[in-house]
Amino acid sequence: MKIIFLNKGDVKMTNEIQAAVNVLAPGMTVSLGGGRHMQALAHAIADAELDVTLCSPAVPTRAAITALGLRLVDLPEHVDWAFDGCDSVDRRRHALKSNGGIHTFEKLYADIADQYVLVAPPERVVDRLSPAVPLTLEVVPPAVWQVVRAVSDLGYVAMQRTTGTVTTTPLGNSLVDITADDWGNIERLDNAVRAMNGVVGTSYFDHQVTDILTTDAAGVAVWLK
């Protein structure tokens, strides 16, 4: 099955998306995160004619839900299942969700969900988080230079994001990307930067993820808990 999106491009239906649909039941409230696969999941829910209420921290996903005529609400008090993508996730269910720049909102939805599931291709499910993915901070603009300097004092490289598709957050705050040779000490670093004045949040998810939904070598959907 091929799905055409509101934005350019398309994506084929995956076994992970079908596995996600299979756990849903009428009456549930379901959160769909950002990315084309989450829009594909919205299409799959519409095709299954599931009587669920949807919400999303991502504007393009919300637009897709609305275009499909599905029931959409703002941030609710409770979510049964929340699905999202990621840039890298380890087998302890620690994740980096850096590229989209909406991690503050994504955590709001994750924190009210009974199940917060990352739908990820197998190459993104790793033993240790990929150093190719930065730790991204949402920072109020006046504090950017202070945060960059403070991170540098900790021995890391930090740069304000000024190029690419996403350079600011939905709240108009700046994005600062921290890079490292490896993320062996990411928990300590994350604790340090979250305490810095002006930092709203980080893209490191340390406890929110309950499940990883991926595929094995044969393409069969696999749940990792």
What does this structure look like?
The chain is α/β, with parallel strands linked by helices. It folds into 2 domains: 2-127 and 206-224, Rossmann fold (3-Layer(aba) Sandwich), CATH 3.40.50; 135-202, Alpha-Beta Plaits. The protein has helices at 15-22, 36-47, 59-67, 103-111, 144-153, 186-194; strands spanning 2-4, 10-12, 29-32, 53-55, 79-84, 88-90, 95-96, 113-119, 125-126, 135-139, 157-160, 174-179, 199-202, 204-205, 211-215, 221-224. The strands form 4 sheets. It has a 6-stranded mixed beta sheet, sandwiched between helices. Strands 9-6-7-14 form a 4-stranded mixed beta sheet, with helices on one face.
| Structural classification | alpha/beta
Radius of gyration: 18 Å
Indicate how many domains the architecture comprises: 2
Which spans of ≥5 residues are poorly predicted at pLDDT below 50? 1-11
**Total strand segments:** 16
- State the share of residues found in helices, binned by percent: 25-40%
Indicate the overall shape: globular
Order of helices and strands: EEHEHEHEEEHEEEHEEHEEEE
CATH hierarchy class name of the largest domain: Alpha Beta
Give, in spatial order, the strands making up the sheet with the most strands. Answer: 4-3-5-8-15-16
- Beta-strand portion reads 25-35%
Q: How many helices does DSSP assign?
A: 6
